[in-house]
Design brief:
single chain; Zincin-like; 4-stranded mixed sheet; 32% helix; binds zinc ion
Amino acid sequence: MKCGNSILNAMSRHKQLDLFAFDLNSRQEPAFRPVAGVAPPPPAASPAVPTPRPPTLAGDVRWREVYAPSQVIGYALRRSRRKSIGLVINDDGLQVTAPSWVTLAQVDAVVLEKAAWVLEKLRLRQERQEQLATADTQWQDGGRIPYLGKRIELRLGDAPDGPVFEGLLHAPEQGDILRLPLPRHADRDRVRDSAHGWLQLQATEWLGQRLDRLQRSSGLAATRWRLSSAATRWGSCNSEGHIMLNWRLIHFEPAVIDYVVAHELAHLRHMNHSAAFWREVERILPGFEVARNALRRHSPTSLPLL
Ligand SMILES: [Zn+2]
């Protein structure tokens, strides 16, 4: 498993492990050699996913199209020195890299073989981009945001001084009200900033408590921890034992938050994602897989869109 994929980096000198590299790993199919043998997957029943050619392509990239059972799949092909064919989905669609000795027909065959996976990933990505386009509409009176896995409602206009949460801070219910001290028609940036401020306060408290609890029960201890607002990772742990936790985790249900905390604590023992690492996660938080799978569907930039 690849670690050390650093995008933000106060600590780039140290070996860094990031959850992003693992948890969003499903976007990147493990590389495999172009040998046939696996039967093609059944055609997808869902409607066609557009795979348009980007307006511009780099000089060493060639555009290809293959005919899958359900639809045409366009993809960008780049030759590389790697020894296997790699498939990655990004904002420009399907990107394929292949060694120069592999024929175009062989590359097409691999894309066809993985058609169901490719189309599913493209569909999910396009859905998320559509959600992001409408995310801003939440930052207004009556808007709903997730807090500890429950959707709470923003109300503007009546709060006296600071934000007031009309519910149990650590056991919210669906539809609980968060009153923000802003005029009823405050613009979205002010509403978002005010709500973020409140969420970050709750994150400091909740994450700190969960970290304490799991440290005590596991016998592990970070040298220090702090909140992060990284765009691409939920948490990280470096070789000096510093743990960073994304404040946006406060949007998730408690079990998911515990999983991220346990994941980073396990890195204090194992700076990798080996089998021993996952056994350590299991020791700290038995049955963590459900929460891990829930988190896989999200990236920090897609929140608060639970
Ligand atoms: Zn990790």
